[in-house]
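User: Can you fold this complex?
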Amino acid sequence: MFLEYSGRVTKAIQDKTGESDPCLVDGGEHGDLASTIAFALAKRERTSPVRIALDLAKDLGARPDLTGIQVSATGPYLNFVFGEGYLRDSIREAVKPGYGTLPAREGRVVIEHTSANPNGPLHVGHIRNTIIGDCLTRAFRKAGYRVETHYYVNDMGRQIAIVAWAVDRYGDGDPGEKGDDRIARAYIAANRDLEGKPEAVSEIDRLMQKVEAGDPEVTKKFRTAVTTCLDGIKKTLLDLGVSHDRFIWESDFVRNGDVGRVLSRIRRLEEYREDETIWLDLSAQGFKKPYILRRSDGTTVYAARDIAYHIWKARNFSRIIDVLGADHKLIGAQLVTTLGILGETTPTIVHFEFVSLPEGSMSTRQGKFVSADALMAEVAARAYDEVTNRRTELGEEPRRAIARAVSIAAIRYDMVKISPEKSMVFDWKEALDFERQSGPYIQYAHARACSILEKAGPFAHAYEFGDPQEIALAKAIARFPAVVERVTVELRPHLLAAYAHELANLFNTFYQHLPVLKSEGRTRESRLTLVSATENTLKEALLTLGIDALGTM
RNA sequence: GGGCUUGUGGCUUAGCCAGGACAUAGCGCCGGGCUUCUAACCCGGAUGCCGGGGGUUCGAAUCCCCCCAGGCCCGCCA
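Assistant: Here's the predicted assembly.
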């Protein structure tokens, strides 16, 4: 209901003042919404902002389209207080299944995320990408978009050639072990062996040339190695609660001729340069370095295939979103620029900064990383101890199930709560913390609400909210759809994480101060309605974050 | 060296793009609260020249310039 009310205020201010920007700010203690437009008008009309605010408050307060909204001026500020119908209507909406889902929209969105090279298991850096991408996907779906998610599989780069070469030499390990771990072992060993051995490096080059030319035997080797690794990665993603609609194999764009077609299109651009290599001169667009598309041996580099992939996406989707690490900023900007020159729909790239270990950056090649599997196992073990301490009456299996859900909540929330542009150092202590600013804290508030509702039995909905804790909680619930909207506009899923925490916090305060089951009559019904709305909103928020909304824990 | 980016109480962090009314929350610290709906909880307290310096503005954590510190990028890697 917040979206509707703030929309009405925006229109009324625009209509009354002729300004396009209503200068809306958070009202804080003064109201549900405020406007600083009097400052802007004061300059133009050369009068005091206090006088303008006063006049505006009088005029706006009398407008029929602002019925149910009280307008006042405090100094130069315009304050808007939403009437009691606001909370009633909001909570009436909030108890309905699927609360927060926005009306369906036109067009299809493609979100590419994770896309880690299949040369080893996903580590804690990769899953920052995964979790941001998956939360964005869920938020877009909640906001009414049709979304398809992609994992772009690099199955023909140099690193994969090294993997294929390594598997050829040392085999791919014990089939009882996860494929990504087996491939990592081969990859790490190969990198060690390749050091200072130019003849081995030229073997790798030859493999890449053969794959590009479509040599069936080498292609099969690459595909087998990639599949082995990808099987393990898919298992990890599944454990994290993430699934991709499609895995797009890079080599497909070479085999189906798209890459060749891209190169001939690019040949006609004025930025086109060809010496022993093929590259684009984007210096007019501010790029000092050449954007190389084809090596001197005739094989294409990643960039060429990426352009082909993105043109394909542009033809099939109305909006393209890529979640990429900050190390891809330059190449990403070059890609966007090139697609722009070609007149294709350009992707919006969401960059996130690196996750490092206290001892330095992670490296698959050197085997220096904390794998997502290890993280999940450790956190789940810790969660299991916690559940066992609290719920002695529960059997083994239910405790394991709760611990699993709690551990994924802790991991996902820790990753998504930090702004993507902030680099982070992985910290075991923080990862194993289930209190306060954590996923389990929010799950716990939800479980509490479930417990009350279960004990309450059937009740009639009522909407009388007078206590400050009730009002604060109801107002937060009313904002949920606006938060979903904002996440998709700003492409910042951490806003949802912050919102869910705030809501859980307000519910815990309410829970602490106001009895629900022991209250009576209309008060009991209203509070139960509020608990039900909270439960539903927390559930929807958690689901959008990709976290299980447990009924008990 | 050039480009991008981050710098907010002891630590972690929101707010910055779209400048406004006392800068957000968590950890840690100090002090309280479980015969009462799940204490993975709640309440209270201490702690901030918002990296530094200039500027724009009625008003700057937020915009501009310079400087300092960290991260990332600058490959016929991805």
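Residues 2-82 of chain A form a domain with the Gyrase A; domain 2 fold (CATH 3.30.1360.70). The CA atoms of residues 370 and 389 of chain A lie 28 Å apart.
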